[in-house]
Amino acid sequence: MLPNLKGQPMKQLRSERWITIKAVLFLILGLLAAGLLILDRATLRVGLLLAISTWSFCRFYYFAFYVVEHYVDPSYRFSGLASFFRYWIRRERR
């Protein structure tokens, strides 16, 4: 379990309701940011680049958690992207 800013272990989010609320808030934040970016620079090029970058980051996230856990190293469990990068750096040093 990772520590919080006070050095105490953080509690894991286990409530299905709060997990769903968190997901909806991330969706709203992403849509709002994308919408504001497109309103600021309303061109086909910006829209396509935004779509490609969003798709690419989603695929990377899928790779970092699902593919690595299920196909590369089934014994390792990641707690976030920082954990994934630490794992990858240590793996490259070996």
Can you put this structure into words, describing what you see?
The longest helix is centred in the middle third of the chain and has 29 residues, at 44-72. The protein is extended, with a radius of gyration of 17 Å. It has two domains: 12-42; 55-94, no CATH class. With 94 residues, it is mostly helical. The chain has helices spanning 16-40, 44-72, 81-93. The two termini are 26 Å apart.
List keywords for this structure.
94 residues, mainly alpha, 2 domains, extended
User: How many beta-strand elements?
Assistant: 0
Number of domains: 2
Radius of gyration computed on alpha carbons: 17 Å
Shape assignment: extended
Mean pLDDT: 82
Helix content: over 70%
End-to-end separation: 26 Å
| Percentage beta strand | under 5%
